[in-house]
Amino acid sequence: MLEGQAVAAGLRDAGVTHVIWIPDSELGTWNEALSSTEGLALVRVCRAGEAFAIAAGLWIGGKKPVVMIQCTGLFEAGDALRNVLHDLKIPLFVVVGVRSWRAHQEGKTADNCPVFTEPILNAWQIPTTLLPLDATAEDLIAEYRRHLDDGGPHAVLLPE
Amino acid sequence: MTQLEAMEILARHRGERIVITTMTTAGIWPALSDTGLDLPYLPSSMGQAPGLGLGLALATGRGVIVVNGDGCMLMNLGSLVTLANNPADVFLIIMDNALFEVTGGQPHAGVGNTDFAQLARGAGFSRVYTFPSFADWKDGAAEALAGPGPVCLWLKVEGRLGQKTPKGPRPIPEQIARMRQALGVK
Q1: Alpha carbon of A45: minimum distance to chain B alpha carbons (Å)
Q2: Is A83's CB within 8 Å of B44's CB?
Q3: FRET pair for A70, CA 20 to 30 Å: which of A19, A128, A151, B157?
Q4: Neighbouring-strand partners of residue A100
Q5: What residue segments make up the domains of chain B, in order of their start?
Q6: Global model pTM greater than 0.95
Q7: How far apart are CA B21 and CA B4, in angstroms?
Q8: What ipTM is given for this predicted complex?
């Protein structure tokens, strides 16, 4: 599990100004760090689609937002994602928690979230990186920096 | 009141604020104002204009007026809660024509029974205004659009049948580049 303080400080140091999110059980462990790190604003939303719209407004206004949601929220947010990333051409960085990924790999769950998450991102033509199970905050920040260099949208999947 | 009449009053009171328009109003507004601070949100994701406005307000500290349709509002009622709980100068105008106008004029699920003012208050808005007629809007717009946000304004407007989906004055990536230039974003 990535450590919240390191994630929050790393994102802030990489230039991120806002995290727009709905937490899941793993992202949720970062709540205190994300909400208390100076220079980083946490914006709480009601549905995942909203996160893309708010991030778009922030980006148009010159900020550097990151969207953090669970894969279930990603499934809900399809139209907002399509509009923001493809119509508006706003290059957002999105962190998606993949529920039950470990259990799915071990054949110990009927949860189909891990089955659909990556194919759906592929269908939406979003470049995607699945972090390894032993990934650290530094790995996530490195993905963010790579996203800045590439200049396009990018999704990072956190196996849960 | 017609949506054109409503938007003409808005044009007198928008000041230096950003104006995001959706659906029918996105087709009307460019004839009234077509500057870098105007964003006809087309093509859109229905229900996401309030979020777009909140993000712009948080980023710039500038007031943002979001003109949303009633059908758009119903698609994202949670955005009322998000706006009310992330204080910023967002003025959310709900244009209630009781129709999905741009798809030909079909009724939506809430016709006649949805009280958007109550919904906004319940979500946490402390400033909520209802304008059932043109006269009310003409007389009350200055007060409703003054002071800090968030503010919710519910306007009852005429529905029209047989309308087509409006088009923006230019491709939206150009519109966004124009807005970033107007805001001084590099």
Answers
A1: 6
A2: yes
A3: A151
A4: none
A5: 3-183
A6: yes
A7: 12
A8: 0.97
Over its C-alpha atoms, chain A yields an Rg (Å, rounded) of: 14
pLDDT tens-digit readout, B79-115 = 999 999 999 999 999 999 998 888 888 889 988 899 9
Q: Closest Cα partner for B25 from B9, B15, B13, A78?
A: B9
Before B150, cis peptide (omega within 30)?
A: yes
How far is Cα B72 from Cα B120, in angstroms, rounded to an integer? 15
Helices (H), B61-171: 70-75, 78-85, 116-123, 134-144
- Across the interface, of A46, A65, A82, the residue whose CB is closest to B78 is A46
- Contact of A40 with A19, CB cutoff 8 Å: yes
Task: Give helix then strand counts, H and E, for chain B.
Answer: 8, 6
Element (H, E) at B23: helix B23-28
- Which structure tokens are listed for A60? 């148009």
Q: Testing the interface with A: which of B19, B38, B44, B48 to mutate, by most A Cβ within 10 A?
A: B48
Ordered domains of chain A (ranges, CATH): 4-135+143-159 (3.40.50.970)
What's the one-letter identity of residue B12? R
Q: Which residue has the tokens 């995001």?
A: B20
Q: Where are the alpha helices (DSSP H) in chain A?
A: 4-13, 31-36, 48-60, 71-76, 78-81, 101-105, 113-123, 137-150
Q: Is domain B3-183 in CATH 3.40.50.11440, yes or no?
A: no
Q: Residue B140 — φ and ψ, nearest 5°?
A: -105, -5
